Amino acid sequence: MSGSIVRQSTDGLLDDGDIRKEMWKSVVPIRFVLHSNDISTLSVPDPLYLLIPRHTFLPLISKTIHKHFSSFTALLKGTESEMWFDHKGIPLKWNYPVGILYDIMNRNSGAQPWEVGVHFQAYPSDVILHCNNENTVKNYFVNALKESIYIKNGDCSRLNNLSVVDSGDLWEGFRDNDYSRFWQCNQKLSPEPSEFKYIPVRIFRDKQSYVQEIVTPYDEQGNSRTIGDVLDELFGGKVSYDRVKVQGLRPSMDTPIVWLSGNVCHPDNFLYVHVV
Prior knowledge:
By secondary structure, the chain is an alpha/beta fold. It has helices spanning 17-24, 62-69, 98-105, 134-153, 157-160, 164-175, 179-186, 227-235, 257-263, and strands spanning 4-5, 27-34, 48-53, 84-87, 90-91, 114-119, 199-204, 210-215, 244-245, 250-251, 271-275.
């Protein structure tokens, strides 16, 4: 895709499956390198190059990374639950989507592949939530989904009423990067974009922290509010719009916020906006 999101008029389709599929396919090229302090053999392992979906979480690819590096950390007895990642010495929060981590850490250079350090010891639990296993990631994802669905719908009945099979497909589709499996369940959770009560938004600045906002999609006259309207209200017109990204792309400031929420939100249904 290009470096910007094409503007959608308020008269156009609010639901665009082609855009959603393109967003789902977006990846970050990463060069994983085992940190020198974690090497317990005489030989140094080769880096591991992977294309990682922007929407996933680092622990969901830990098995592949562990398999590549574990034989070089044998004396340390490194396990997946002790694995953590850094970029230039800064620990990476596993509970943020990979794409957001990349955007924050490469806000000026946009370097690719992105170099990420791999560690099997000295877990920085004062900075990063501990991730014991896949269920930790699943619980985090589902809790975020419950919150966003409540904001959009005004209640969680759609999520609570999913069948056991649908609930399993929702998580496994996300975990396994299976768009069709995930979306056939996710579309049951939200109303049509034109019926959103509010829009759940998480805004990241230049650090690994965010401000969560509940945004009204329409003004008092019933007109769609744009992302420019929302950012002007939140930041008093002090945002440089060429430094705003959604899914790594620069949206036109007259794009309706409801269109962005319906088509380029994260699978947890939050709209992630990076403002440099």
